[in-house]
Structure formats: structure tokens, C-alpha cells
Amino acid sequence: MSAIILNGKSLASDFESEIKKETEQLISRGITPTLATILVGLDPASATYVKMKQSTCQRLGMKSIAVELDEKTTTNELLNKIHELNNDDSVHGILLQHPVPSHIDERKCFDAIELDKDVDGVTCLGFGSMTMQEPAYGSCTPAGIMRILEHYDIPIEGKHAVVVGRSPILGKPMAMMLLNKNATVTICHSRTKNLQAIVKEADILVGAVGVPKLIKSDWIKSGAIVIDAGYHPQEKCGDIDLEGIESLAYAFTPVPGGVGPMTINTLIYQTLLSAKKLVE
Ligand code: NAP
Question: For the domain 140-261, what is the CATH code?
């Protein structure tokens, strides 16, 4: 049997229609969902990511406020800007684009974002709250993956989930989200021994390493659910070698068109949820 394709691209497009409708309803009640994006410096990749987020907002009828700060901005100046946006009732979500220039204390600035406006799920408080199953927005890439799994009714409870990668925005929150859905979770990283053998045990495998095709298709157990969070535009592949995956896996995310499109969608969805709280 051929594996289920977890099509994040078409799912994001379906979700966009719903978000647009709900945004219109909120606007008719006097609330325009608003995301403030903060870009510090001139990194071209970061500028492109921020533009994509702003244009998705606008396409769906939301407002986006673009804050662009000079490369030489200090930690204190950035903190002041974040406090200003925290205190602005018309702003429902704040996104600080990573990475900021290296002289800035990025962690301190992330953590200055109010929990209620942390729609990108980057604060320590947000991570801790999510882990403890208290209200918080999840980090967008893993939260987007959970929305894909939920939409396709992929069973998680009791499964052995192996997350390869432990970054603050992806691997760690991914592991906690799967744990909260009663998976038995193993987290692997660059010092893990026998990675191949651990991957072979995975009922649910998440590749989040940032190395093209690091995880080989012949490491994957037959019938596994395979989630590839990586994307390497030059090599046109993710972190998992998906060769022959259709006849091997139970379900898999393609690259491109799997995890990627759901990340921005989740950011915008969480901004909508934050705005909706004002009428609930
Ligand atoms: P990251 O911060 O560089 O973290 C990579 C993780 O992989 C680290 O925990 C590292 O371990 C681990 N790792 C590296 N080499 C390894 C190896 N040989 N064996 C086992 N583990 C290894 O990357 P990230 O930000 O989490 O991103 C991971 C991937 O997801 C990238 O391909 C990125 O492009 C993609 N991504 C996609 C989206 C999206 O919107 N679709 C968003 C974010 C990221 P250590 O901790 O030991 O160093």
C-alpha cells in the first residue's frame, strides 16, 4: 500500500480560507488581528522570511506592523521597542525575527515578549507553560507539525517517537508536544551514539537536524510516520532521505510542501487566536 502524503501545502491553503473568514468576522466586531514583526539588521534571508509573514497577514485581511531596526541597535533599545509593543493594545502578536545581530542578547529580548503576545512560541515562559500543559502558544514549526498530525488523524498515543534535533525552536518543543500527546519520546542530537539503531525503533520519526539527508531511508522502520522538518533549497531535499518512502512509511511529509507551509500558517493562526481572546 502507498503511504499517506501529509500534504502541508494544501492543508495550509485550506486553513487560510478559515483564518480569512474568522478575521473578517473579528474585523466586523471592531478588532483587526495585528502582528508586529521586528527585523534587526540587513540579513537578506531574515528580511525575506519577515516579508513572507507580513504578506500572508495582509493576504488574510490582518494587519502587520513592520518594525525595522538598524544593525547597531543595542539590547536595551530592542527591549524598549518590545515593551512598547507589549503595551500597545492594538497589537496581538509579536514576532522577533531570529537571528538578531550577535552583540544583542537575543534570549533576553525573546523573553521580554509578553506570554499573551508570544504567538511565535519563543519565550522560556511559553515553552515551560506548553510543557506543563498550561495555556501558551507553541513554537510554530512543531505546533504546525502537530496540526498536520491532528488533521490526518495520525495516532500518537503509546507510539515511540524519535526526534532527531534538540533546538529551542524545533526539537525540544516537538518532543514535549509529542510527550503531551502520550508518545514515548526519545530525543537525539549530535552526541547521540547509534543514531541509526534508535531511528530504526521509531514509530514516529521527526528529522530536525539541518543536515541534508542525514537520516537514510534504509534506517526507517516499515510503517513509520515520517516527518521531515528540514529544507535545503540548493539540494532540494530535507533532513531525511525520502527515496522509496511511499512504499515504506505509513505516512510522510514531502519536501517541499510538507512541514514548511504550516509554519507561517501557524504563526498567523496563533495571532488570530490571540486577537479572538478579546471577544471571548
Ligand atoms: P539547529 O538549531 O541547527 O539544530 C540542529 C539540531 O540537530 C541540534 O540539536 C543538533 O545537535 C542536531 N544535529 C546536528 N547534526 C547532527 C547529527 N549528525 N546527528 C544528530 N543530531 C544532529 O536547527 P533547527 O533550527 O532546529 O532546524 C533544523 C532543521 O529544520 C533545518 O533543516 C531547518 O532548515 C529546518 N527548519 C524548518 C523550519 C520550517 O519552517 N519548515 C523552521 C525551522 C527550522 P546539538 O544540539 O548536539 O548541536
Answer: 3.40.50.720
Residues of the chain with CATH 3.40.50.720: 140-261
Q: Which residue has the cell 533576553?
A: 108
Catalytic residues: 53, 97, 120
pLDDT band at 243 (very low <50, low <70, confident <90, very high): very high
CATH superfamily of 30-123: Leucine Dehydrogenase, chain A, domain 1 (3.40.50.10860)
Provide the 3-class DSSP secondary structure of residue 187.
Answer: strand
Q: In this structure, what is the dihedral angle of CA atoms 264, 270, 273, 275, given to the nearest 10 degrees?
A: -80
Ligand 1 probe mutation, 167, 206, 241, 255, most atoms within 8 A of CB:
167
What is the chain's Cα-based Rg? 19
Can you tell me the mean pLDDT for 180-196?
98
Record the pTM. Answer: 0.97
What ligand 1 atom has the least distance to the C-alpha of 166? Answer: 9
Best probe residue, ligand 1, of 141, 169, 190 (max atoms within 8 Å of C-beta): 190
In the chain, which residues fall in CATH 3.40.50.10860? Answer: 30-123
